[in-house]
Automatic annotation (TrEMBL):
<keyword id="KW-0325">Glycoprotein</keyword>
<keyword id="KW-1015">Disulfide bond</keyword>
<dbReference type="InterPro" id="IPR036349">
    <property type="entry name" value="Integrin_bsu_tail_dom_sf"/>
</dbReference>
<protein>
    <recommendedName>
        <fullName>Integrin beta subunit cytoplasmic domain-containing protein</fullName>
    </recommendedName>
</protein>
<dbReference type="GO" id="GO:0034685">
    <property type="term" value="C:integrin alphav-beta6 complex"/>
</dbReference>
<dbReference type="GO" id="GO:0005925">
    <property type="term" value="C:focal adhesion"/>
</dbReference>
<dbReference type="InterPro" id="IPR015812">
    <property type="entry name" value="Integrin_bsu"/>
</dbReference>
<feature type="transmembrane region" description="Helical">
    <location>
        <begin position="40"/>
        <end position="62"/>
    </location>
</feature>
<feature type="domain" description="Integrin beta subunit cytoplasmic">
    <location>
        <begin position="63"/>
        <end position="108"/>
    </location>
</feature>
<keyword id="KW-0965">Cell junction</keyword>
<dbReference type="GO" id="GO:0007160">
    <property type="term" value="P:cell-matrix adhesion"/>
</dbReference>
<dbReference type="InterPro" id="IPR014836">
    <property type="entry name" value="Integrin_bsu_cyt_dom"/>
</dbReference>
<keyword id="KW-1133">Transmembrane helix</keyword>
<dbReference type="GO" id="GO:0005178">
    <property type="term" value="F:integrin binding"/>
</dbReference>
<dbReference type="GO" id="GO:0033627">
    <property type="term" value="P:cell adhesion mediated by integrin"/>
</dbReference>
<dbReference type="GO" id="GO:0016477">
    <property type="term" value="P:cell migration"/>
</dbReference>
<dbReference type="Pfam" id="PF08725">
    <property type="entry name" value="Integrin_b_cyt"/>
</dbReference>
Length: 126
């Protein structure tokens, strides 16, 4: 008699059973349909590469978005600069940090002059 059983590990077992005067004999035992064990290194490699690829794609998208935003900001800045009502060489908000003061108590007793040969000539005042 042909018998087929499903085992607890999802495998199918097929065998023939014969009963005679000495007892029951099973022969022609075949095992099939067993699930294969998962390939752990390939799963880890696949998950890791997926994470890296998704990260690179997100970085590329972010870079494109930032570049587009920066181009808009530069165009806006250039448009505002073109509409400026002050001279382009000076900034109306800038105030020089250096100041010149005259010391009224200082008496200069000599005068520096340069002749044609760029030689320093000191003339004493009287």
């Amino acid at each position: 008699m042909q018998c087929t059983l499903k085992m607890e590990n999802e495998c199918w077992v097929s065998f023939n059973v014969v009963e005679d005067e000495t007892g029951v004999i099973a022969y022609n035992l075949q095992k099939y349909g067993c699930p294969e064990a998962p390939d752990i290194p390939m799963i880890i490699l696949g998950v890791s590469l997926s994470i890296v690829c998704i990260g690179l794609i997100l970085l590329a998208v972010w870079k494109v978005l930032v570049s587009v935003h920066d181009k808009k900001e530069v165009a806006k800045f250039e448009a505002e600069r073109a509409k400026a009502k002050w001279q382009t060489g000076t900034n109306p908000l800038f105030k020089s940090s250096t100041s010149t003061f005259k010391n009224v108590t200082y008496k200069n007793l000599y005068r520096e002059e340069y002749n044609n040969d760029s030689l320093l000539v000191i003339n004493w005042k009287q």
